[in-house]
Amino acid sequence: MLTEFNSLPDEARIWIYQCNRTFTEDEVAELRTRISAFLEEWTAHGSQLQAGFKIPYNRFIVIGLDQSQSAASGCSIDASVHFIQNLEKIYDVDLLDRMNVSFKQGKFIAYKDLKEFKKMVKNKAVSRQTIVFNNLINNKAEFEDFWEVPMEESWHSRFL
User: Fold this and answer.
1) Which superkingdom does the taxonomy of this entry point to (predicted)?
2) Residue-wise pLDDT tens digits, 118-140
3) Terminal CA-to-CA distance of the chain, rounded, Å?
């Protein structure tokens, strides 16, 4: 069952998929339709899942699930991953590659593979204060408070 992302409880489970490029406005409109349709039908062992989504910066797909109603099962998580893989094919993008880093460079969102990002740290092309996107967070409260943070406050700090 589709619900408004902002109405999800702080404990709602979160999955973040970062894109290797910015989606166009037309693509975002299509994505909203596709994701809404998927979440309307998303179930776990026959029970409707109460979930919502956001597409921040036209660059990330964030799905939240209120597990107090029904928890995700292995099959429902597999279904969501299959859905994301299908989006990758439709839009010719990478959404599941966790070995990449997204960070702010001025008003732009940069996307680099981990090896390149490490080089940027070494060459001081990014600093402790560079805003990075911590896509390893687990719930909505963490998403709101710790998703966009200075590198020194994220797991990325191990590269400093």
Assistant:
1) Bacteria
2) 999 999 999 999 999 999 999 99
3) 43
CA distance 142 to 148: 10
> Cβ atoms within 10 A of the Cβ of 47, count?
13
- Site of tokens 């589709």: 2
Q: How far apart are CA 33 and CA 27, in angstroms?
A: 10
Residue 18 carries which side chain, given as an amino acid letter?
A: Q
Tokens describing residue 106? 């001025």
Structure tokens at 134: 């911590």
Residue 144, pLDDT score: 96
Q: How far is CA 137 from CA 90, 102, 107, in A?
A: 27, 14, 23
pLDDT in tens, 71-86: 888 889 999 999 999 9
DSSP letters for 8-42: S-TT-EEEEEE-SSPPPHHHHHHHHHHHHHHHHH-
For the chain, the structural domain boundaries read 5-91, 100-159
